[in-house]
Amino acid sequence: MESPKTQDDKLQMFFDGELAPDEEAAVRRDLEGSPEGAARLREWEQVRAAMKGVAAEWAGEIDSDALFARIENEIGAPVVPIERPEHGQPALHVVPGGRERRVWGGVATGFAAAAAIFLAVMAWPESQLDPSPITRGSEVLEADFGSNTGTIFEVEGGAGESLAVVWIDDEEVGLP
Amino acid sequence: MSLIRHLLVIAILFGASVTSGASAQGSSLARSDRASTTSSVPAEVLVVLAKEEAGKIDPQLEKLTALRRPPFNSFRSMTILSRPKLKLTPGKDALVSLPNGRRMKLTLLRVMPDGRYKVKAAINRPDKSDYLPLLQVVASAGDPFFVAGQTYQGGTLVVGVIVDPKKSAQ
To answer: How many contacts (CB atoms, under 8 Å) link A and B?
Structure first.
């Protein structure tokens, strides 16, 4: 006696038409031997007949050979380069004179930088360019009055500078 | 794009050359100025007779405001006796005759780093050293120093010395 699973598998193979003719005849006899089996067999034959009819209709409508031939032609066809439209992308167009404007813009920027450096150097206070500070006025470093007496003064000049004055007492001398 | 870079580099180099040229010109002028002053510097000696008596102040002295301040403010008349111009050469004495028979000897010692002139002065009778044996002064261009106190003709001699490269020596 076969297990239920084996019976189901055999029924499935019977419905799919995969059984050998003798096994198919034996399964058919078993199904026809009972009312339930006979009903299942009739339903299966109706479904099978409907599927065959639909398949026949599809097969008549679709020319599979022509379809595969067209696919093969498409795959084997040479690559054709895509032609770009002449005015497809206006944003990428080269504007005449744009390069020249950029060049002259760069030149103008360079000269402006050079002029700025030049003016900065020329306008820089000369006292900062010259490391030695400017000292105005005069001053006494050393004085030897000899046998006389003298005094060293500082007097303010017109610009506020300090001017050195050496004052030596003297008796009038005559011409030689 | 490379053209723009080249032009920018040229422009920057041009600017740098102009600025460096200007700086070099300035520094070279300063060097030449100092070199010329080191070789020979014009100077002027102002010999003034000042008296306490009322009188006239020489109009040429009006710009010397220092002569109206102490210790000169006691003088009420000032007359320019002489105004010799000379050239000071480092290491070489320049002589100026004074009206009282003395001579003023001026020597340019050096040009200081700050541009001032270091000058040695002496006032004596010929072959004598009885008045002012030695005086060393530093003075900026155009700013005078004064030696005063010698009596002369009832007044006082005020001698001003101005070292000024802008002045031309006679």
So the answer is: 179
